[in-house]
Amino acid sequence: MGSMPEIMVDECNGLLFEAGNALQLRAKVIRMFKDEEIFGRTWHAARASFLNKYPAETNIERLRVIYAEASSTGSRKREPTHVGI
């Protein structure tokens, strides 16, 4: 779904399946658990793909921007809280 085919290469860094196809998903999960070679190969390739596309510095900067936006948006929209005794 979405950009998954651009991120994941079937049989290389993962196993793709048709969205909404539970039987196909089931077959891919079973294959991943039963086939140690495909599991090891795809796991290592997925990790390498992630590290290449999303290095720690990039992720830290993205999180900083998200937190900054969330805190500024939250403080503007939040209604004052009143506590009664």
Structural features, described:
The protein is mainly α. It has one domain. It is 67% helix and 0% strand. The longest helix has 22 residues, at 56-77. The radius of gyration is 21 Å and the shape is elongated.
Q: Main attributes?
A:
85 residues; mainly alpha; elongated; 4 helices
Q: How many separate structural domains?
A: 1
How many helices in DSSP terms? 4
Tell me what portion of residues adopts beta-strand conformation: under 5%
- Computed Rg: 21 Å
End-to-end C-alpha gap = 52 Å
Summarize the structure.
The chain is mostly helical and 85 residues long.
Mind sketching the topology for me?
Layout: H1 4-7, H2 22-34, H3 36-53, H4 56-77
